[in-house]
Amino acid sequence: MTGTPRRHPRLRPTLRLRLTLLNGVLLVGAGAILVLLSWLLVRDALRPTDELLPGTTVLLADGRSMDAAAWQRQLVDSASGELLAKGLAALLAIGTVGVVGAYAVAGRALRPLHQVTATARRLGETTLDQRISYSGANDEVAELADTFDEMLDRIAAAFEAQKRFVANASHELRTPLAVMRTEIDVTLSDDEADAAEYRRMATVVRDASERANSLVDALLVLARSEAQTGRRLGRRTECDLAAGTLNALSAVRREVERIKLDVHTSLEPAPVVGDPGLLDRLAGNLIENAVRYNHLHGRLWVRTGSDGQRSWLVVGNTGFEVDQADVPGLFEPFRRGGRERTGARGSGLGLSIVRAVCDAHGGTVTAVAQSGGGLEVTVNLPAADAASTGENPAR
């Protein structure tokens, strides 16, 4: 078996080479200008006979007599030639030393960039813990290395969150599927099973399939909401949070009556601009959670309103006690306030969907644990007028 032939890197204008050449050109150019100025100054300065009368002669040290003008020309030519020869030799030496030094300094300065490249090439699912950890001077290269390390931290955190999400989603889907398969296998293995037994089995399978279907729908809504975060919404329509909240309350009316909840509402207009489907799901999730995790003869309060800059939706409920320190974790997928996933109703995606929808619309969501049990969740979104002018007061 033959592998792919290894490609040898061709000579290319690397940053180190370009910096070296630039330094060399600047150094040699500056030296050449200095040599030229020195040559011109020497030629202008060596004119001692300009003030002598024509025909004046000078007596040299060897006893010879020579015309002053000819002696001056000989002196200027000799000094200029010697200056050029020595100047060019010095320029060549300085240029060589400067280029070599610039190449070494550039290599040392760019070493962290090579570390970034090497680290990026080594990165994989099992090597996301590697970092550059640059400890040199506090310059632009150090800033780049630190930024790269911070980016790796975010990627590693996102990768871990994705793995946990996939594991939790698999666990959630496995439970109803296992229930369905068990019921079907047990019923089919019973030779004396009658129509009533098959009807019971069908009811269990239907309930389990509805749970799996609800989970898949919630996952799709969550993915759709997170895909809009930081981007322009696919749909932007002016709508009212109060109207969506009223529809959500109507959808849970029977459950509210069953557990005899005391409902208080104050639904003032709360105009916003965004995706109507996602905003309806936001209100629906908050109302459904407030009913699902309430208790018999509990309370449910809902408020909406706007001040022209922001619109808000507040949903509060009584229920089991929640530690305020655990509240931020409730907005993570598959978290149900300390309840085991397999023992509670719902998919555990309600508040994570609410947070994703808020992020997609440039808003915020906060929750406060109530003394005696329960939770109050507050959603703030840019009002319709503020959103149309590009303001974002909710942040």
Overview of this protein structure:
This protein has 395 residues and is α+β, with helices and mostly antiparallel strands. Helix content is 55%, strand content 13%. It is built from ten helices and nine strands. The protein has helices at residues 15-45, 68-109, 111-122, 140-189, 195-228, 241-251, 253-258, 276-292, 350-360, 384-388, and strands at residues 57-59, 65-67, 237-240, 262-267, 271-274, 299-306, 310-317, 364-369, 375-382. The strands form three sheets. It has a five-stranded mixed beta sheet. A hairpin with a 3-residue loop joins strand 6 (299-306) and strand 7 (310-317). Helix 4 (140-189) runs antiparallel to helix 5, helix 5 packs parallel to helix 9 (350-360) and helix 8 (276-292) runs antiparallel to helix 9 (350-360). The longest helix has 50 residues, at 140-189. The relative contact order is 0.07.
Q: In short, what is this structure?
A:
This protein has 395 residues and is α+β, with helices and mostly antiparallel strands. It is built from ten helices and nine strands. A hairpin with a 5-residue loop joins strand 1 (57-59) and strand 2 (65-67).
